[in-house]
Amino acid sequence: MSRALLGVDFTSAPSPRKPITVARGRRHGEHLALERIDRLPDWRGFEALLREPGPWLGAFDFPFGLPRQAVAALGWPLDWTGLVRHCAGLSRARLREIFDAYRAGRPAGDKYPHRATDLPAGSHSPVKLVNPPVALMFHEGAPRLLQAGVRVPGLYEGDETRIALEGYPGLTVRAITREPYKNDAPSKQTAARREARADIISTLRAGRPLGIRLRCTSALDRRLLDDATGDSLDAAVCAMQAAWAEVRAGDNFGLPARIDPLEGWILTAGADAEARMRA
């Protein structure tokens, strides 16, 4: 049986209204067959997901690491396991206080240091606390990866049958369109955003930009289109990134040969990965 592939659209505060959304599928050659989309309204469901027996490979949309520059300045552990355990011991309020004070001490225009991967990926600094609160996503997500004992290539050598990689749907979507395609506010869930989602789905079905063709039932296709929050589509895009990585499993899942073992790396980010995406 082929390896299960997961795409996880993450939130730092899952609830029935805003759950963690998980797209599940399997790769068949150059196709990803999307099988179902699950909604996890609490941490218990997410933790159970991480402990599901392998083999599976998942792309998770939250930062796995923090900028080395910030970690060193704060005097925190400079190894990933130590860093994650240290941050897990901080309350959310305390983490906010520390990052607020850290940014206050930095010069104007340079408040948010980035990881090496954030610039080629176009992703937010993981010390950002609002719009989106990626620091909180790291604070909730990374300790659960470590606790579950999954393998995180480049960061942690856990269970070889359960592999977690950092995904970022925005990187793939921007290669298709720059038009807004989602919003949590009902008043901003417009026909134009629906058309943008339709364009994204059509392009993924054609195998661009990842070289993987999306396949799904008409019911799932409607789910991707009709979910105006974009959570279902983002989860599916993460699953596509997982399929892209699985094709390159023998080549470090398409990750660079050298990854900062504190910061991690986002799937498909970087010049080499982008060249492979266009191939």
Written description of the protein model:
The structure is a single chain. By secondary structure, the protein is an alpha/beta fold. It contains eleven helices and seven strands. The chain has a seven-stranded mixed β-sheet with strand order 5-6-4-1-2-3-7. A hairpin with a 2-residue loop joins strand 2 (about 20-30) and strand 3. The longest helix is centred in the C-terminal third of the chain and has 17 residues, at about 230-245. The chain is globular and about 50 Å long.
Secondary structure: elements and pairs:
Layout (H helix, E strand, L loop, with lengths): L3 E6 L10 E9 L2 E10 L2 H8 L5 E5 L7 H7 L5 H9 L3 H13 L13 H4 L12 H15 L1 E2 L7 E8 L2 H6 L16 H15 L7 E3 L2 H9 L4 H17 L23 H8 L1
Parallel strand pairs: 1-4, 3-7, 4-6, 5-6
Antiparallel strand pairs: 1-2, 2-3
Helix pairs in contact: 3-6, 8-9
